[in-house]
Amino acid sequence: MTVDRPLLQVNKAGIQFGGLKAVSEFSMEIKQGELIGLIGPNGAGKTTCFNLLTGVYVPTEGEIIFNGERLNGLPPYKVTQKGISRTFQNIRLFKDLSVLDNVKVAYHSLAKHSILSSIFRLPAHFAGEREMEEKAIEFLKIFQLDKLKDELAKNLPYGQQRRLEIARALAAGPKLLLLDEPAAGMNPQETHELMELIAFIREKFNLTILLIEHDMKLVMGICERIYVLDHGQLIAVGTPEEIRNHPKVIEAYLGEEVGDDHA
Ligand SMILES: Nc1ncnc2c1ncn2[C@@H]1O[C@H](COP(=O)(O)OP(=O)(O)OP(=O)(O)O)[C@@H](O)[C@H]1O
Fold first, then answer.
1. CATH number of the domain where residue 74 is located
2. What region holds the ABC transporter domain (predicted)?
3. What is the C-alpha separation between 62 and 15, in angstroms, rounded?
4. What ipTM is given for this predicted complex?
């Protein structure tokens, strides 16, 4: 399934906030279909990398090439349109909207019907709405949230909110999905189910996935390659086995467990 061409290429990208180089000379190459992990101790710069990739921050150095196009300077919504979707470390849902509407909002940008037909409520609008709703329910079924479609997002337990956020990110039709600590706050059973779900959606939607995760069992269990950041710098890239035994990684995590449990 993996095709031999980089979908994402990051060349020595970085960003400085005042005097602080939050990330510097960060390079990464991800091929279509890969499932890659991004790890590092607290404050290493992982979320900042996601913010650079998604247009939240404009890099002060280097470049980001996605699908052959330079992304530097594009606003987040354009980056999404280009095919990069994400979830957030602190879940960001429309908490007072229903589960179904949370997914429809994301799907809306892809809907075929025009604004004009929506305003005049032409038949195409209703066909578009119906199509959108059916599609949204399909996504919810994959995440076993379809029976909760009318529930307000804020009423869902934490693990389900995390799954809903992934469903919404997927509904935007990404080629590359960025997951920021998808297992945070989940119990071991939920984490195990999430691992299976990530593997499943990757196959089903022919996705490329980059995930930040502190749960080493999850990272080591599903990622093919892992990038390790420390103090804003890349200190290692390799297979889970290589990373587990990498002296710089062990040093960076000194006092923490880079084994099977939480880091
Ligand atoms: N907008 C900003 N302004 C100033 N400093 C920032 C900004 N965003 C991030 N930083 C700093 O950049 C560094 C990296 O932060 P980042 O959140 O990317 O780390 P992280 O690896 O995701 O950490 P964690 O695992 O704790 O979430 C930190 O020192 C942080 O304070």
1. 3.40.50.300
2. 8-256
3. 9
4. 0.94
